[in-house]
Amino acid sequence: MIIRFGKIGHLAIKTSLLGLAAFMLIQAGGGSVARASDFFTALQARLIKDGFDAESIQLLYGKPGVGFEIRGVGLFFRHSEARLNYGQFLQERRIQMAQQYIVEHSGALAVAEDRYGVRREIITAIMLVETQLGKLVGNQSVFNILSTMAALDDPAVRKAFWKELPQERRLSRKAFEKKADRKSRWAYNELKALLRYVDAENLDPVTIQGSYAGAMGYCQFMPSNALRLGVDGNGDDRVDLFDHTDAIASVANYLKHHGWKPGMTRQQQYQVILKYNYSKPYANTILDIAARLRDG
After folding, report:
1. Which of 82, 105, 194, 199 is surrounded by the most beta carbons within 10 Å?
2. Residues 251, 38: Cα–Cα separation, whole Å
3. Continuous segment of H or E residues that includes residue 140
């Protein structure tokens, strides 16, 4: 399989070897991103071996804005101190926001209901919790996050990354290694999905902003879900998760794919919503918001 990218720029990549001295460039400017060529050499070779076009990959990793992201990826390797307050989404002002969203996007929501059998209140509740109805989509480079995480498969990169992680709330070395093994495999598959998705939709992967976990769009899909379950809701022959109509249709399609059917009990709905985000408080909050919206 050969994949080329439509909007990748024209800077050639340097193939410098990774070393700790080069890695320290991350801190030189006070930021969290370093030159991609210092850290992604092995990752590029792996992508090319897996069928991606060599010239396109080299040009892509040489683009301005591409870099090794310690700050965002480092969050995966720190002990969590707090959990999200899901109760905030049941506050009256948030419910009113969701009610207004239903009015403003009534057409797209009605089509999604008819086509996928998912109530508009459920779709809206998910969009509210995920991104406050498209207002907070994340400010991390999805491409950088996934590339950095995937690059941890390289022992030299992983060793240097560990040394640069802030020690406060840092996992033990053993726990770090175990998680890095798992997350690097996961991120590599998501990175490949991202590259296929942007190729199909003629997008520049470097410009896509999302969460520190790599989720993107108003509905916060991971690239693999965008590729498999993203839907062109507005009929423009593109799947744009930063378009409300496409995001609404994609949420409904995702839920239907995972077993959503009209007439399900709350417990059955709960089980399907866990497929979207495996968090019991999350699933219950979605159902509670939907009930508030349905009851007016």
Report:
1. 194
2. 38
3. strand 140-141
Going by pLDDT thresholds of 50, 70 and 90, the confidence category of residue 37 is low
Give the residue among 131, 135, 128, 127 at the shortest CA–CA distance from 90: 128
The residue behind tokens 């995972």 is: 258
Domain 86-138+215-295: which topology? Lysozyme (1.10.530)
Measure the CA–CA gap between 180 and 78, rounded to whole angstroms: 12
Which residues face 69 on adjacent strands?
33
Domain ranges of the chain: 20-80+141-210, 86-138+215-295
For CA atoms 288, 289, 292, 295, give the dihedral sign: negative
Q: Could you give the dihedral angle defined by the CA atoms of residues 22, 25, 26 and 30, in that order, rounded to the nearest 10 degrees?
A: 170
Percent of the chain scoring above 90 in pLDDT: 83
Distances (CA, A) of 169 to 75, 82, 83, 140: 10, 12, 15, 22
The tokens for 256 are 């239907």
Taking the alpha carbons at both ends of the chain, their separation in whole angstroms is 51
| pTM more than 0.90 | no
Contact 206, 5 (CB under 8 A): no
Residue 126 exposure: Cα atoms within 13 Å on the Cβ side? 30
For 52-66, give the DSSP string: B-HHHHHHHHTSTT-
